[in-house]
Design brief:
One of its GO terms (molecular function) is methyltransferase activity. By secondary structure, the chain is of the alpha/beta class. The chain is built from 8 helices and 7 strands, in the order H-H-H-E-H-E-H-E-E-H-E-H-H-E-E.
Length: about 220
């Protein structure tokens, strides 16, 4: 696989960071929403399908997934307990508390049964995992997806551009603050057995954002 930067902060440091910024996270992540929304549109979850969001954060996508999947149950996992608590409140306000099951944990070791989900959604999260962990996480996705399941990924895409080089410089100098980095989403998915159904690339503050749908 092509070379990408490493993520050097520990999982515990990541948990502490996201717990600490949970109250303000929606402000920081506001620019990501339109890309996540497009990813959800491309994932095209249907009524009755069972879905999982990895890195569900404060629950914006969970609301959309739960509404689309009704009456099926939607699941969400995030490393931050405080982010999960905010997601629970958001779902309660939306009247969807009983439609979603949330878990705090590390997605490289999912607790769900084999071939359980119709769809998985990962938005601005895959690039938070260290390089050796990305295939582990994606193989877990393969395991828990049904034979006809699909995976939607929204992620920063690595390219040879000034914007990406500047961003990676900040990632190297301030890994606790800028804890994600651009990756190669298509290569990551295909190397773990996914077949690419659709891909779009857009720009966010000059950085390429890849939206990919992979089939098991």
């Amino acid at each position: 696989m092509k070379e990408i930067s490493r993520v050097v902060r520990s999982k515990e440091k990541a948990r502490q960071t996201y717990d600490g910024i949970s109250r303000w996270y929606d402000l920081f992540a506001a620019s990501e929403k339109k890309f996540a929304d497009l990813g959800l549109e491309m994932l095209n979850l249907k009524s009755g399908e069972i879905a999982l969001e990895i890195g569900c954060g404060t629950g914006h996508a969970l609301v959309a997934l739960a509404l689309a999947a009704y009456p099926a149950t939607v699941y969400g996992i995030d490393i931050s307990e405080k982010m999960r608590a905010i997601a629970e409140k958001r779902l309660l306000r939306a009247g969807l508390a009983d439609a979603v099951r949330l878990e705090t944990g590390d997605a490289t070791s999912l607790s769900y049964a084999d071939e359980y989900f119709d769809a998985i959604f990962i938005s601005f999260t895959l690039e938070l995992f260290d390089t050796p962990e990305i295939p582990i996480l994606l193989k877990e996705c393969q395991r828990v997806l049904k034979p006809t399941g699909r995976l939607g990924v929204v992620a920063l895409e690595k390219e040879d551009s000034l914007a990406v080089r500047i961003y990676e410089w900040f990632h190297a100098k301030m890994p606790a603050l800028v804890d994600c980095r651009p990756i190669y989403p298509v290569d990551s998915l295909t190397s773990t057995g996914f077949k690419i159904q659709e891909k779009k690339i857009l720009k966010m503050w000059g950085l390429p954002v890849s939206i990919v749908i992979g089939l098991k």
